[in-house]
Every structure is written in structure tokens, then in C-alpha cells.
Amino acid sequence: MLCMNNDFENTQHNEDLQAENEFLKMKLMLERGAVFGSAEDKVLPPEIENTFLKNMIAIEQQFDDQKTIKVFDKIGKPSHYKPANEIPEEQIDNEWEKLSAHLSEYGIQLEVCSPNITIRELYRFTIEELFEYQMDDIDIEGLVHNFIYDEFHPDYIYENSTAAKDECMAYILGKEPMEWMCHFRKQDIQLNQHKDLSEDDFKIIVNLYKQAYDDIEVNELEVTNCIVEKYESRVSGTYKVVAITGYDSCTISGNWQVFLEKDELLGYWYINNVQIEGLNL
Predict the structure, then answer these.
(1) What is the pTM of this model?
(2) Architecture of 156-276 per CATH?
(3) DSSP secondary-structure letter at 183?
(4) Is the pLDDT of residue 37 over 70?
(5) 225: phi then psi, degrees, rounded to nearest 5
(6) How are the residues of the chain apportioned to helix, strand and coil, as percentages rounded to the nearest 5?
(7) Closest residue by Cα to residue 272 from 223, 229, 234
(8) pLDDT tens digits, residue range 63-80?
(9) Stretch 158-168: mean pLDDT, rounded?
(10) At 233, is the secondary structure helix, strand, or coil?
(11) Which of 275, 278, 273 is nearest to 254 (CA)?
């Protein structure tokens, strides 16, 4: 009998939570324009969904207050961290670990994308710049405020090299149809001798090359140089692919260049010209 009572109480509790969750979702939809999936899409237990919905409402309410606070004040105004130039080289890794752990205790995390940024620079940036940054003053259990170093100090050589290699040349050379061109400008793109191409034109030319082979293996794709000059950038590299048709194969290799231009308003770099030796495009 005791087990039956427990089962009844658990069922009633779940039903109450589900009803409350439906009310909270309706509140978010009416007041915030939130969109939720259908009842068939539910995968979360009611307790987890309830916590999630309440956190969403709490975050929205705190955003409405538009309160900000300096990172330095958020983490308790620490005074024991030395300037980066006063820390010996053999101690900098340990000091950064301490500082990073301190930030984490207050729900703050600093990440970096570029591999060219040193631990000392991350420490210096945190002490001298991030501490003074005005962040949203939101306190929700489990909420993490993520900062990315590169958004404050972009490494355009790294970013443009990565975009040219991984988001352009890799898409062009491989066998899979080219679909995504998020790093390209929309119009007036050049590909070898083809000029004034739209995104669709560019993809048609590239995909026709791919369709000529049963398979294409990319054996080499390297960046050899990247030049950034104000609003223009050029990334150079080499490639080698093995193109397979039936039982036959041939090796195609050469140099490539990807040209980018910077949107002065948005601050983003867009590819506008791709030159590839050896490919019959």
C-alpha cells in the first residue's frame, strides 16, 4: 500500500509540474515571443524542464533591469594578482591557472581561438582589460558568462588563413557538393578566369568539376602565407588531390590564392576571389 501511495504522489507531482511548465511556456510565448516545439518533441523530464523555464524567465527579467557591473567587481575586487610583466616565465602558467579558476568560481570563462596567443597575454588581457569590462549583472545558478579574447583583439592572419583553408579550399577540392559559402560575399566573386559570379554561379562551376570524378581524395592542403593590409588580405597555399574515375586516377596539384576584403561597417572579412592552379574549372 505504501508503494501505491508513493506512485500516486509521484504521478501527481509530475502532473503538477507539467501543468506549471505549460503555464511558464505560455508566459514566455506571450511576453517574450518564445517558440517551443510540439508536445511530441518533449525529451526533458518535467523537473529539468521546470528549472530551465524558470531560469529563462529569471534571465529575461534581469536583462530587463539592464544592470551592468565591472568584471573586477563581479569577482570580488581581488587585489593579489600581480601585473603580467612582474611574473617570471616559469610561474606564468601557474598564475594563469589560479586566475582562470578564480573567474570560474564566479561563472566567468575566457576562451581564445587563435593558437598564437600566449598564456602571458591571456593573463595580461584579463588583468588590464577584462577586469574593466562592463558585463551584464545576471545571477543565475549554473549560468556561465563566456568571453572570447579574439573578439577584443582579432588575429586576422589566423582567422583569414583558417577561412581560406577550411571554409573555402577544403569545400572546393573535396568530393562533397559545395553548399555553404558563409565566408564569401554574395556577388561579384571571381574563380580563376570566371568573373562577376554570384554564389549560385560559383557553386555550379565548382560542382561541375566534382561531378567529373567518382571520388576525390585531398592528400595535401596547406597555407604557406597570409598577408593582411588594412581592408585587403591574401592567403596563399598549396594542394594535392587524387581524382578517381573508375579504375583510373590522376594526381592534381598546384598553388592557390584566396583574396578577402573587409567590410568596414561590420568588421567581417569576405572572400571575393579564388585562384587555383591545375584545376580545370
Answers:
(1) 0.72
(2) Roll (3.10)
(3) T
(4) no
(5) -165, 150
(6) 45, 25, 30
(7) 234
(8) 666 688 999 999 999 999
(9) 97
(10) strand
(11) 278
